[in-house]
Amino acid sequence: MAPRDANWIDGLRGVASFMVVGGHLCTALVPWLHAPAADAKTAPHLFQLPFFRLVVGGRSAVAIFFLVTGYVNSIGPIGKSRAGNHDAAFTGIARSALARSGRLILPTMAATFITWFLANTNAYHMTKHVDSQWIRQGWHRQEPTIWMALMSLFRAETETWTVGWNDYDGTQWTLHLFLEGSMLVYTTMFATVLVKPKARMLVYAVLYLYFWQMGEGLAIGALKGLNIIVGMFVAELHNHYKDSATSVLPAPVPAIMIVVGMFIAGYPQDSPQNAYWSHTMAKIMHSLTGEKADIRRYWDHIGASIVLLGIFFSRNARKVLTSPVFNFLGRVSFPVYLLHNTFIKSVLTWMIYLPSAMNPPRNEKGEQQDLQRGSTTHIFIAIAAFYYILYRCAALWVKHLDPIFGNLVNAATKWAYGEPQQREARPILGNGSTDKTTVLPS
Length: 442
Hints:
With 442 residues, the protein is an all-alpha fold. It has helices at residues 8-29, 59-82, 86-120, 133-137, 146-162, 175-192, 197-212, 219-241, 252-265, 276-286, 295-312, 315-321, 324-331, 333-358, 376-417. Helix 1 (8-29) packs across helix 12 (315-321) and helix 14 runs antiparallel to helix 15 (376-417). It is globular, with a radius of gyration of 22 Å.
């Protein structure tokens, strides 16, 4: 895989991608861990406790993806604006906005094609009969004719971006929001390139309050808008403090911020009333938001934002996130996000349920019952193998497919600009000058 400069924001994106996979594994195999306890009178499991629950909870990771989108897409225009290089700022925004769609849509289309192909070669047959409700919901039938299969592929490829849902991979529901979030960044940057930094900060504040009160729609308010705005705010801080950012606050403060943020980000997905700490958090947020607001998204946003700020001001945290392991996680974060659900429904399901599938359980009437998973040891071995296969395939994706997508986007944009065509190998995840983020996050 081609080398890529390490940076802490890439490492953070890699952590978020890993958390999303862990959260979906939890939903598939041990969904009861999403609650802070079985009930108000039962002691919690280790991974239901604050901090530990982040290992199996991926919701706050989605907030991190939006924070990263706001940060990375705005950092260049803000720097040029502050330097008074307004023409370069406008040019950069125009080029990024044009290329951004292709850099998200082309890899997503490829991932959809893969899961469509597996479904229509009956590779998901086993998922229809497993005892995991989440995996079973991801089942898609094998279409009876080639024409119907092609039509279902067309619908999946288009509806991911039009209605926000993909019948073959439900985890792609966030991708159109990432694209919208990027356009929100470009629009805000375009409108504020000529203003002074203090005026732009005021714009951020107004936008933040606007999105806060739109909490009835989680995608518009707490999930997308608030995180995008905070990401742009941190990019503003980056251009203000530059290399001195890690020496602004006393050493313990960033660490405390990270710890506090991790606690808040652990707000449970289900049944917060089952533990005193989460029930208290629920009451606090209900008093600060609208009647129909999804308060889970608000706590996800606040926790992830505090963690991001803590890392931004922490030299040690940045050093950890630029280590080789986290650099690798960041490089493969987008294909991991795109492929993990497909691999859960195929590779992981095959490994966990194969013994039961070889001798399917039946009731007294001879009707087949849900396939049963193997022993705990069997499941842990299967998960370890699943992670290896997933990240190995993601690395191959970055090495072989990303350059193709990058060349296609570059060729299309150069044609649009009327520039001469030149062959240029550029990874989709590369930190180029026109588009510096690939998310997904998530």
